[in-house]
Amino acid sequence: MPAWKVYGKREQGGAINVMNYAEALAWIHSLYRFGMNPGLERIKALLQRLGDPQKRLRCIHIAGTNGKGSTAAFLASMLEAEGKRVALYTSPYLEAFTNRMAINGADIGRERLAALATEVRLQVEVIARTGVGQPTEFEVVTALAFLYFAKEQPDWVVVEVGLGGRLDATNVIEPVVCAITNIGLEHTQILGDTIEEIAYEKAGIIMPGTPIVTAAAALPALSVFRRIARERGARLYEMDGELRYTLGGATLDGQTFDYHSPWRELKSLQIAMLGQHQVRNAALALAARELMPESFNEAAVRRGLAATCWPGRLEVFSRNPMVLVDGAHNPDGIRALCQSLPGILGGKKMRLVVGILGDKAVDEILAEIVPLASAGLIVTKPDNLRAAEPMMVAENARRYLLPGVSVTVAETVTAAVGKGLANLKEDEALCVVGSLYTISEARETLKAWFVC
Known about the structure:
globular, Protein-Tyrosine Phosphatase, Chain A, UDP-N-acetylmuramoyl-L-alanine:D-glutamate ligase, alpha/beta, 2 domains, eight-stranded mixed beta sheet
């Protein structure tokens, strides 16, 4: 990129220099150097200069430790099945950066993203020279998404929180309904060391008078939610309270469940996603849908739930041989995975590929998942600056291996998947876990092996 070119500014003759897609991504990712800087001042200033696009959107806001993306996907799918035009903002992306902002399942176009990034960049450079300070990467991406959605004017926008809630860049919207999935210890250096402290940060999305639903089960978290909801005059609905579900059957093709709320009972609902935790996510999304100020179309809701697909979450990539990928990356997520694996594996031994980010609870993750790796462990690292070194992870993992089980190291995810598939026996399954960044690379590699 020529050093003299100033993107977004009108040059002599009226032309505007617009970044192409590669330049836009390079600029956005260059903002990573400013790190995570909690606070709403910068995002508010940026959005104000862009005309406050978020104020032209009807939103549902979803926070929580795990399951945010899946819950958002369930809700968006239900609304789409009802004939609505639905925008979805999630993070991180799995296959392409454009995955992060989609409307009715279609990602933003590359040229469109580049043009909008050019528009946002001009305002970012103005703000960076003020006392407000430099907007971060996530703040810029969030502003870009809201600007895109405002120009497209969908019927609904489902927004996933990036980190925490109270000071997250998404917490500038005025949602119609809020949802909080669960609460576990995560990002403790930012959100706090206790469940109560983390719950307080998540509860920051609770808005005065706005209904809130939660699937959190821990009493310390619920106590925080109840207090804040009461203070803000927001009606709180709790899973396992007035909201309930009952598990039905489960196969590799999906699961069934019954659902009960103060408004209706629904029998034999179906979802294609695997794991009991996904039933809970689906029930939470269903509760959020019930609280929306539009008539409830049961037939469409059933179709939407059944059609929901969220890749990389206990995804069966192949059945013969059996290959699973799951983006679980914290202790609660890994525990949910471990709870579901025996029923999915059906007696097969598991060969495990693990790639973890270094700022996660590496030892707790290993303690949960490694004992299940009865057919071998392969440690690797995703192509990410935050990735934990595989030699260190492998050394920690040895403490949790069953006697006689081997551990090897592969420097790349592609190499690790290749090793995992090599000589995989009929009574074995390959499972890739540890980070969505790991899963993203693994899925790209697996596509060369299997027809999806």
